[in-house]
Amino acid sequence: MDASSFDPQKVMDLVTEHVVNFAPKLALAIITLIVGLWLISLVGNAIDYLLEKKDFNISLRKWLSSVATVLLKACLFISVISMLGVKTTSFIAILGAAGLAVGLALQGSLSNFAGGVLILIFKPFQVGDYIVAQGEEGVVEAIDVFCTFLITLDNRRIILPNGPLASEQVNNVTHEPIRRVDLSVGISYNNSVDEAERAILEMAKSDERILNEPAPFVGVVGYGDNSIDLTIWVWCKTDDYWDVYFATNRAIKPALDKANISIPFPQRDIHIIDKSA
């Protein structure tokens, strides 16, 4: 097009026509974007509120509300650009391929993440519980989305991935309010089992931390080479377990000594035969 054929009026008319045709779409897209963002904010707050009422873990609560917000914003963005006349089919395909690639690259992390979500939702253990899992044991210090933190009895910090933790056996030691303390002792064959049982039960009743219900129990579990073997069961509050364990173990011998019950040790009788006689 040479300068002689250029008509400014026609150009202005063409621009005006495009602007007039595009302006309603742009205005509608802007209004949709503003209203959509406002509604998404309300939805995110509502999700967070409902999860808080359900007593969900705060980290899981924030994550779920964030994920819901991001997904809704992505849908809103695709809708807005579609309203402007942009083809979104290829865009959605690219997002899908990118999501698949990221998922394959983060298989282990996603497994831990899924395990963390299950733990936080179903609560097989909580912060403060003493658990045994994955060959480790300790008090649960924190539960994150990807891992769980334990503090061991000797004050080491153990980090366990949530994937295996959610799919394998976990022993929650302190979940119940009371626990049974299991002890054992051997008495001499020359002593009375009834007297030994009576002495141990009286000793158990003297400790206020040992519960009357379920009642303490003493029973014979076997006959060894040097002793009659007794098992002792006493119940206590979970918080008192170790105090009762060590105190009862220490009190057994004085109680048996008081009742003239002996605790034997391995020994052999040797008989010498004089063949010269």
Describe the overall structure.
The chain has 277 residues and is of the alpha+beta class. The protein has helices spanning 8-53, 58-83, 89-105, 107-122, 162-167, 193-205, 241-258, and strands at 130-133, 136-143, 147-151, 157-161, 171-172, 178-187, 217-223, 228-237. Helix 1 (8-53) packs antiparallel against helix 2 and helix 6 (193-205) crosses helix 7. The chain folds into 3 domains: 13-105, Orthogonal Bundle (Helix Hairpins); 123-172, SH3 type barrels (Roll); 178-258, Alpha-Beta Plaits (2-Layer Sandwich), CATH 3.30.70.100. The relative contact order is 0.07. The termini are far apart. A 5-stranded antiparallel beta sheet has the order 4-3-2-1-5. A 3-stranded antiparallel beta sheet has the order 6-8-7, with helices on one face. It is rod-shaped, with a radius of gyration of 37 Å.
Major sheet details: 5 strands, antiparallel
Distance between the termini: 144 Å
Number of helices: 7
- Percent range for helical residues? 40-55%
Can you tell me the CATH class of the largest domain? Mainly Alpha
Rg for CA atoms: 37 Å
- Low-pLDDT residue intervals, each spanning 5 or more residues: none
Protein name: Small-conductance mechanosensitive channel
Pfam families: MS_channel_1st, MS_channel_1st_1, MS_channel_2nd, MS_channel_3rd
Subcellular location: Cell inner membrane; Cell membrane
Keywords: Cell inner membrane, Cell membrane, Ion channel, Ion transport, Membrane, Transmembrane, Transmembrane helix, Transport
